[in-house]
Write a structure and sequence with these properties.
This protein is of the alpha/beta class. It has a single domain, classed as Spore Coat Polysaccharide Biosynthesis Protein SpsA, Chain A (Alpha-Beta Complex), CATH 3.90.550. It is about 40% helix and about 15% strand. The chain has eight helices and six strands. The chain has a four-stranded mixed beta sheet. It has a two-stranded parallel ribbon with strand order 1-2. Helix 5 packs parallel to helix 8 and helix 7 packs parallel to helix 8. The N and C termini lie far apart (about 40 Å).
């Protein structure tokens, strides 16, 4: 993933912030060997706290004007980022989502598709929106917008929290189609049904909070 991020075409300068979320599988050693690589910043968390904490940590270290969230599992090819950031750089949008459901049907397990569709439908029902992929990793926005959201989630509930706070603040989310190669549980996929329940709680709580 780092090799791809360093070489893809982007219409602006890039800063790659790698968050090692307390990994114990040799990730720290791999990243240590990359220290000093131009345009690469490496941040080590002392213990694993989840995707949400990793995103918030990366946001705190970012120096650029646009934030693009990228998982390291290669489900989403970062070559797509050049196209996705263009509406932000041109001033046409404050937020862009890369939707896995605007193009052809993803080759993912049916239960995963149903869960994603259901959570997105609930989001649209609660917030009066019309997005197609609430759970997408590709949430891209101005850094000032991201930092103004007041994010608190530590785990996978960061996805509904970002969307709920954006919609409640009145930001329009522009979507563009992206290709997606799903990772299996055998390959390390960790999100499960409990995370779906947590997402519902987050969406409802933020909708009816002050």
């Amino acid at each position: 993933m780092i090799d791809r991020l360093l070489t893809i075409d982007l219409p602006a300068e890039r800063e790659i912030i790698v968050i090692n979320d307390g990994s114990s599988d040799g990730t720290r050693d791999v990243l240590t060997a990359l220290e000093g690589t131009p345009r690469l910043r490496i941040v080590h968390a002392e213990r694993n706290r989840g995707k949400g904490h990793a995103i918030r940590l990366g946001l705190a270290h970012a120096r650029g004007g646009v934030i693009a969230i990228q998982d390291a599992d290669l489900e989403l090819d970062p070559a797509q980022l050049g196209r996705l950031v263009e509406p932000l750089l041109s001033g046409e949008a404050d937020v862009v989502y890369g939707s896995r459901f605007l193009g052809r049907r993803p080759d993912a397990p049916w239960l995963t598709l149903v869960a994603n569709r259901a959570l997105t439908a609930l989001t649209n029902l609660l917030y009066g929106s019309s997005i197609t992929d609430m759970e997408t990793c590709y949430k891209i926005m101005r850094t000032s917008v991201a930092r103004g959201l007041g994010l608190t989630a530590d785990r996978f509930d960061i996805e509904p929290e970002i969307t709920a706070r954006l919609l409640k603040a009145g930001y329009r989310i522009a979507e563009q189609p992206v290709s997606f190669i799903p990772r299996s549980r055998a390959a390390g996929k960790k999100i499960g049904w409990r995370d779906g329940i947590a997402a519902i709680r987050v969406l409802v709580r933020h909708r009816f909070s002050a």
